[in-house]
């Protein structure tokens, strides 16, 4: 019985092209409010680069041959990937599901609940792509791009965004109310924001925490990738990060769809 | 001519955890009719409607819609159905017109067709002037009309209306009734739930009365009134004297005493009460036609349901 329940969490979802109709709905809303959506990813990295890079950076010695502002710039991209998809698929999806009853309206059409959830997550990934591209533009304006490999960052942003969306959607499937998201907010997102090799190298942490960060925290791998691509130093350990993401993303993607289905279809 | 069956339920049940919401019901809905589901809160009306449009999975029994099994072909069935839910779930992020266009896209309606149909529907529901207004700024009546318009965007064969006029003022109610009648004339099969018995009597060819998850009676509203109540109802203020006289005069009648009023239900023909009152002038007496509400209360009782 219990095993059945676990197995049903990984049932293959029935997905068709209709996923994109859900994506389109969110994109249409985004287009209408694009000004509000553009400001945070534009202004936030400017503040961070000035305060931490220019200000604090004066007191920080070189890290792995990089100035402090060069060290944190790729982390800001990774952080924006994480924040935009995570918040889209927690607060955003919850509001659409619970308050606006948008999901109810959509599943009264030929679109099924699996497609609605998948469309929401693809949209979350798209939000990551858009936000991180704006951050990338700010970083370029600060003259911090040193390798043409930065062109691959939007691709990383989409797939890492999908990973954060899928994890976020699992939390949404468990959320009894909107205040619940405070828990993953300060128990998962905030520690990741600070401890994933973002503002100081992972090697500064005690070794068990280094292991933990690499085994469990998705932002660690996102930062590895954005930093390597922005600075143009490809190392073999990046393959490990890619494999990590390639395993975690589909697992949570499928799990979240089934959990949401269980929550919504009684 | 034998009417074509569009929806058929056989021993249909639905259980939520320990609560049996729909208890092994059997019914048919015929093509082109307006069929009303009546019943107190918690009777199982909305659950039944939701199973018809594949929103809720069937727990046991069989349910066929337009010849297709709901458990096997939900997409095909949903394509042929328009739903106006009880709860307002318009998209608050869009204007009136965009709500229709985005909804049409969910049904794969091509853009040009969607635009044309939306314009027609806005006109039909007198919402043309509101086309560029955001949902928040609509009155309750306008939102209801827009929900109906949205339910028609895929040109459905079957229209499901879950309490279409709850909370509306009489003007808005009558307007929606007119539209429902128009749609029926156009050949759309309509299923509606309502708590308003006048609405059911006004619109429905046939009603199914549900209670505790079961269908307890069904038939045309006028036939049900005739069968269970009769032609007329006499209401007089209670006193022992008049009660005694009435019981002698109408030995076969059903009496109901409530709030110091006596209600007399008889199957005798029209005019008997008038004759009685001429012989026994009684102050505060009224004679009225029997109606569907009398039937409903007789069958489901007066106890409040939570």
Q: Estimate what percentage of residues of chain A fall within beta strands.
A: under 5%
Class computed from helices, strands and strand pairing of chain A: mainly alpha
Oligomer: heterodimer
What is the number of domains of chain A? 1
- From the coordinates shown, what is the CATH architecture of the largest domain in chain B? 3-Layer(aba) Sandwich
Number of helices of chain B: 11
Main sheet: strands, sense, barrel of chain A:
none
Roughly what percent helix of chain B? 25-40%
User: What is the terminal-to-terminal distance of chain A?
Assistant: 18 Å
CATH fold assignment of the largest domain in chain B? Rossmann fold
Average pLDDT rating of chain A: 95
Distance between the termini of chain B: 43 Å
Q: How many individual β-strands of chain B?
A: 14
Query: How many extended strands of chain A?
Result: 0
Task: State the shape of chain A.
Answer: globular
SSE series of chain A = HHHHHHHHHHH
Taken from the alpha-carbon principal axes, the silhouette of chain B is globular
Order of helices and strands of chain B: EEEHEEHEHHHEHEHEEHEHEEHEH
The largest interface is: A-B, 21 and 29 residues
What's the number of structural domains of chain B?
3
Describe the structure.
The complex is a heterodimer of chains A (266) and B (306). With 266 residues, chain A is mainly alpha-helical. The longest helix of chain A is centred in the first third of the chain and has 32 residues, at 68-99. Chain A has one domain (19-264). Helix content of chain A is 74%, strand content 0%. Chain A has helices at 2-8, 19-32, 34-55, 68-99, 102-106, 113-141, 153-174, 182-195, 207-216, 218-231, 237-264. The mean pLDDT of chain B is 93. Chain B contains eleven helices and 14 strands. In chain B, α3 crosses α4 (111-124) and α8 (221-228) packs across α11. Chain B has a six-stranded mixed beta sheet, sandwiched between helices. Chain B has a four-stranded antiparallel beta sheet with strand order 2-1-4-5. Chain B folds into three domains: 1-80 and 166-171 and 183-228, 3-Layer(aba) Sandwich (Rossmann fold), CATH 3.40.50.300; 83-155, no CATH class; 230-290, Alpha-Beta Plaits (2-Layer Sandwich). With 306 residues, chain B is α/β, with parallel strands linked by helices. Helices cover 36% and strands 27% of the residues of chain B. The two termini of chain B are 43 Å apart. The A-B interface holds A 18, 21, 24-25, 28-29, 32, 100-102, 104-112, 265-266 and B 16, 53, 55-57, 74-76, 78-79, 81, 83, 85, 87-94, 98, 102-103, 105-108, 154.
């Amino acid at each position: 019985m219990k095993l059945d329940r676990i197995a049903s969490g990984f049932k293959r979802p029935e997905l068709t092209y209709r996923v994109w109709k859900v994506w389109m709905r969110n994109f249409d809303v985004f287009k209408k409010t694009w000004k509000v959506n553009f400001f945070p990813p534009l202004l936030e990295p400017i503040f961070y680069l000035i305060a931490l890079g220019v200000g604090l950076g004066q007191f920080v010695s070189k890290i792995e041959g990089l100035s402090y502002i060069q060290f944190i710039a790729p982390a800001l991209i990774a952080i924006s990937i994480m924040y935009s998809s995570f918040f889209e698929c927690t607060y955003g999806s919850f509001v659409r599901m619970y308050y606006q009853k948008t999901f109810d309206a959509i599943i009264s059409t030929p679109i099924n609940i699996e497609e609605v959830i998948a469309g929401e997550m693809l949209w979350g990934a798209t939000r990551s792509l858009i936000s991180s591209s704006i951050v990338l533009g700010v970083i370029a304006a600060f003259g911090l791009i040193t390798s043409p490999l930065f062109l691959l960052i939007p691709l990383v942003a989409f797939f890492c965004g999908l990973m954060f969306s899928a994890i976020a959607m699992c939390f949404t499937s468990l959320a009894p109310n909107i205040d619940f998201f405070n828990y993953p907010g300060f128990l998962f997102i905030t520690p990741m924001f600070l401890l994933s090799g973002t503002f100081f190298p992972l090697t500064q942490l005690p070794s068990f925490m280094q292991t933990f960060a690499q085994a469990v925290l998705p932002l660690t791998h996102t930062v590895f990738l954005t930093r390597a691509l922005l600075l143009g130093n490809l190392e073999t350990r990046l393959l490990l990060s890619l494999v990590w993401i390639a395993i975690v993303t589909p697992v949570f993607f499928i799990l979240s769809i089934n959990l949401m289905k269980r929550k919504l279809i009684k | 001519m034998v009417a074509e069956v569009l929806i058929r339920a056989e021993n249909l049940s639905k259980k939520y955890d320990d609560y049996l919401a729909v208890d092994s019901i059997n019914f048919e809905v015929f093509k082109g009719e307006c069929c009303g589901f009546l019943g107190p809160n918690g009777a199982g009306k909305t659950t039944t409607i939701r199973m018809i449009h594949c929103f809720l999975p069937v727990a046991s029994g069989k349910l066929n819609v337009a010849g297709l099994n709901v458990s096997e072909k939900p997409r095909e069935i949903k394509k042929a159905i328009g739903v106006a839910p009880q709860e307002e779930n318009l998209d608050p992020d869009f204007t009136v017109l965009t709500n229709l266009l985005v909804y049409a896209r969910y049904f794969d309606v091509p853009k040009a067709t969607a635009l044309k149909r939306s314009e027609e529907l806005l006109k039909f529901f007198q919402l043309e002037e509101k086309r560029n207004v955001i949902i928040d700024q609509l009155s309750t009546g306008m939102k209801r009309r827009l929900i109906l318009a949205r339910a028609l965007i895929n040109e459905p064969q079957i229209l499901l209306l879950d309490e279409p006029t709850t909370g509306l003022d009489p003007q808005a109610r009558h307007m929606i009734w007119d539209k429902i009648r128009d749609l029926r004339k156009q050949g759309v099969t309509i299923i509606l739930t309502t708590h308003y018995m006048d609405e059911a009597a006004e619109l429905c060819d046939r009603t199914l009365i549900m209670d505790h998850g079961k269908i307890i009676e069904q038939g045309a509203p006028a036939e049900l009134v005739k069968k269970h109540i009769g032609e007329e109802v006499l209401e007089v203020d209670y006193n022992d004297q008049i009660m005694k006289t009435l019981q002698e005069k109408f030995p076969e009648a059903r009496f109901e005493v409530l709030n110091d009023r006596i209600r007399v239900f008889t199957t005798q023909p029209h005019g008997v009460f008038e004759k009685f009152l001429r012989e026994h002038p009684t102050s505060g007496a009224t004679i009225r036609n029997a109606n569907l509400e009398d039937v409903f209360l007789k069958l489901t009782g007066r106890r409040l349901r939570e």
